[in-house]
Amino acid sequence: MKTNMLTLKALQALTLTLATAGLIAAEPDSTKPKGPAAKGTDSSLVGEETAVLTQAPQVPPPIKRTHATKVKVKIEVREVVKKMADGVDYLYWTFGGDVPGSFIRIREGDLVEFTLANHPSSKMPHNIDLHAVTGPGGGAASSFTAPGHSSQFSFKALNPGLYVYHCATAPVPMHVGNGMYGLILVEPKDGFPKVDREYYVMQGDFYTTGKYGAEGLQTFDQEKATDERPTYVVFNGSVGAMVGDKAITAKVGETVRLYVGNGGPNLLSSFHVIGEIFDLVYPEGGTVASQKNVQTTLVPAGGSVIVDFKVEVPGTFIIVDHSLSRAFNKGALGMLKVSGPENLLVYSGKEIDAVYLGRQAEAGSESEKQVASLQAQMKEAIKSDPKISGLTKDIQIAKGKGVFMQTCFVCHQLNGEGIPGQIPPLAKADYMMADKERSIRGVIFGQSGEMTVNGKKYNGTMIPMNYLSDEEVANVLTYARNSFGNSGDAVTVPEVRRIRSEAPAPAHTGDKYE
Amino acid sequence: MKPEFRKKSEVRMRAAAGPVLRPSVFGLLSGFGFQLSGFSAVLLLSLCATPAAPAAPAPPGMVRVPTGVFRPLFRGDVDPKEVPVRAFALGVHPVTNAEFLDFIRANPRWRRSQVKRLFADDNYLKDWAGDLELGDAITTNAPVTWVSWFAAKAFAAWAGKRLPTTTEWEFAAAASPTRPDGENDAEFKKQIAAWHASPSLTRWPPVGTSRANFYGVRELHGLVWEWVADFNTAMVTGDARGDSGLERQLFCGSGSQGAKDVSDYAAFMRYGFRSSLKADYTVHNLGFRCAKDL
Fold this sequence. Notes:
The structure holds two protein chains of two kinds. By secondary structure, chain A is of the alpha/beta class. Helices cover 24% and strands 30% of the residues of chain A. Chain A contains twelve helices and 23 strands. In chain A, strands 1, 2, 3, 5, 7 and 11 form a six-stranded mixed beta sheet that branches. Chain A has a six-stranded mixed beta sheet with strand order 12-10-14-19-16-17. In chain A, helix 6 runs antiparallel to helix 7 (391-407), helix 7 (391-407) packs across helix 11 and helix 10 crosses helix 12 (493-500). Chain B is an alpha+beta fold. Chain B has a three-stranded antiparallel beta sheet with strand order 1-4-7. Chain B has a two-stranded antiparallel ribbon with strand order 2-3. The longest helix of chain B is centred in the first third of the chain and has 16 residues, at 34-49. Residues 1-52 and 235-249 of chain B have low confidence and may be disordered. In chain B, helix 2 (22-29) runs antiparallel to helix 3. Chain B is built from eight helices and seven strands. Helices cover 29% and strands 7% of the residues of chain B.
C-alpha cells in the first residue's frame, strides 16, 4: 500500500513533468504566434538564463549584466495550510509555496518567458497578473490554469520599477486575500545605487472566520473581506514572520534597502520603521528617489515602495504599519536587528532617570509604582481566575494615597491624626466611619460647623474639594477608610457621582444640625 | 420541442408547490439508500404534481428537477435576465468509480491504455491501479475524477443520458436542502463558502452521504467539481474573447462586471473553474453526473 502510494506520487510527478514539457513543446506552433518569443527578431537579447527566485525576506542578487536577455521564470501555485499565528492555521493560496510569492528580479528590456504551473492538488484554477507586464490583463488571460496544468506566456519588460504581481481569478478578493501576491523588480538599465543589504517585505490583510488568535484551521471570511474588516494584517504572510530570530539584520554603518509591497487586498499601508528615517524613498516603487528624509511612506494596495536608509546605531528597530491598531492588534509588526558598537553621539540612551512630581504624584512616585505593581498583580490574578476582582479596592487605596498626599495630609497629617483642637482626626474616626455618604458630601461640598469626633468637639471649616474627579474622591475616601487603623468598604465612583449630582444644601453641615 | 414559456408566477408556483411533502418522506426512506429514495421521489413527485400536469418519471438513480426559471450569474446586454429551464432528470449523485468501470469494461477504447490523447490528457484515470482495476487507493463508490469532458460525454451517451447544461446544473444546484432558492438560505451559503475555503481532499469519500437538496439531488456542492455539456461557453476567457462582443473577462475587478450577484463567490469559483478547462483536461477534483430529458 505504501509503495503503491509512493509509486503513485512518483508517477504523478513524472506525468506532470511530461504534461508540462508537452505543453511547452506544443506551444509555439503556427496557430499561436504570440509574444515576441515567437517572432524571434529581438536583436537586443543576448543569451538566456533562468531567474533566481527567493522567498521573503530574501531578495535575489543584483543583476550584473549590462545587456537584455531572455529570462525563464517558473512559478508553481500551491494551496497549502500554514501557520498564521501561534496555534492558528490558514489555507494559503501561494505563488511558490509561501506568502508573499517568490521575488522575481529581472532587468529592463529583458524578455521574460513565464511559466505558471498549478499544482495537481489545487482545488482552484489560478492565474497571474504582473503589474510589470504591458498588455491586457497583465498576463492574466494567458496564464489562466486549471489544477494539474501549466501555462506559458512571454512579455518584454519595458518599464523598470518595483511591481506587484497577483492572482486575478474571480473572485479576486478571495484569491488575493488568501495570499496570492508577490513582487517583481525590473532593474533600470543602469541599476539602482549599490547598498549593503536588501530585503523583501510585503504586507497583506487576512480575513478569518474566527477572531484574532482563535485557534485551529481558520478559513476565509467573505463578509469580513467585503466589509474590509481584516482579522490579521501582517508582514510576509503571518504574525511574527519577521520577529525574534526571523528578524532581518544589518550592521552599524551599513545601508539597508527594503523592497516593500502591499498585496492588500484592501488596506493601504502607512509603512514606518520605528527609530529610523528613510534617507531615500522611491515612492510607489518608481525609479526616481524623489523624496529624502521620510518618516512614514504610504504603500497602496497593489503597490510598492523602495526605501534606503543607513543604520547608525545598534538595537532593534520595529517595522510597523503606522495605522497602529494593525501593528498592536492584528500582527503588522516586524523587526530589523542592527548589531555593532554604540554611537552615543547619535543616540545617548537614557541619560537621566529623575523623579518628577506633578500636581498629583505621577510616573516615578512611590504610590504610582505601587499602583502599577498592584495592577500587574490584578492582571495576573484575573488571568488565572477571571472571577478574582477583589484587588480593585487595593488599587483604589493606592491611588487614593496619591490624592491624600496631594490634597489632605497638610491638615489631617500623614498619620491621619489631625491637629488637636483644630483639625479632626481621620484615624479610627467614628464620625467618618459611621456615614460614608456624609464623607462624600464633605469632600465634594465642604464641611463646616461643630462636630464630635471620637468624643472631642471640633468647629472648623473644610473647603469644598470639588475640583477632584469622581474617581479621585472615591479613591481618597477608600484610602482614608482603610488606613490609620480604619477598615471599611470601598467608595465607588457611581456613589460619588450620585451625590455630586445632589443639591448641596443639607449636606455640608455638622452634627448639631442633624 | 421549444421550451415551454409560462407566466413567471405560474412557473414559480409549480416549482415551489410540487415537492412540499418530500423532505419528510426522504427522511423516512433514507435508510434504503439513495437509489431507492431517488426512485421513490419520482413516485411521490408524480403524486404531487398530478393536479397540474402529469410529470414524466425520472429513471432510476435520477430525480426530476421541475420546470423553473434560472437567473444566470453572467449575462450580456442582450442576454435575457431570466432563462426558463424545462423539467429534466438529473443524477442523484456524481458518477462513481464503480459505475465508470462498468463503462470502461463495455468500451475498451476508453481504457487508460487505449484512450486517444486527443480525448483525454496524460492524467486520465491516473488514480486507478490499472485499466480495469480501481486499486486500494480509491473508493469504489467515490466519484470518478481524472476524467475528460470527452470521456464524461461518452459515458453519458453509453448510459442513454447526456451531460447537464450549465443552466440546468446551476438551476439544480441553487436549491438548498429546504428551499429551491438557496440564495436565501444563509446556512446553506455558509456551508458552501466553507467548502470553497477549505483544503482539497486527497481521497474522495463515497457519494450519497451528504444531505439531499430540495429536489433530492446530492453532492452538487462540497465534493468535486463537475463537467457540464457547455463548460466552454459558460464564460468568456481571454482566448475566447473574439467569440463575443462583450468585454467581459473573468479577471480582476472586471470579473464582477455584469454579474447578477457579486457576493456569490461560490458561483464565481464554479464559473471560473469551468472556464479554466479544455475538453481533454483531467483534474483530481473534477467529475461529472448525467442528465436526461423528460
